[in-house]
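Re: your question about Replication restart protein PriB

S., sorry for the slow reply, the queue was backed up all week. Below is exactly what I fed in.
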Amino acid sequence: MNHLLLTASIAELKALRYTPAGLPAQDMVLEHESQVEEAGQTRQIKASIRAVAFGAVAERMRKQVVGSSWRFAGFVANPRLGKGLVLHVQEFQPVSTDSSGAHHGRT
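Result:
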């Protein structure tokens, strides 16, 4: 299964573009920071991740503020031209700020 959940902030939003089929596409860069346990040690994690959203998700994404934090869900794939992986965002929602971790609505 190829499914990724990631809490990250929007570091960069490129200009909205359209695919040859006329579908809106929003390219972006996301930044993630956290701590994880690995081999009994606490590790600081910092990562920049290229991402893209299409269709209605792209239209919603283009209205968001650079620096805002979200919980992203999607899958990873190699881009047509280039190296590495790109997160294809299929859904995003606000990061909950309460202690229960409950989610309070979508954008």
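The chain is about 5% helix and 55% strand. The mean pLDDT is 90.

Happy to talk it through on Thursday.
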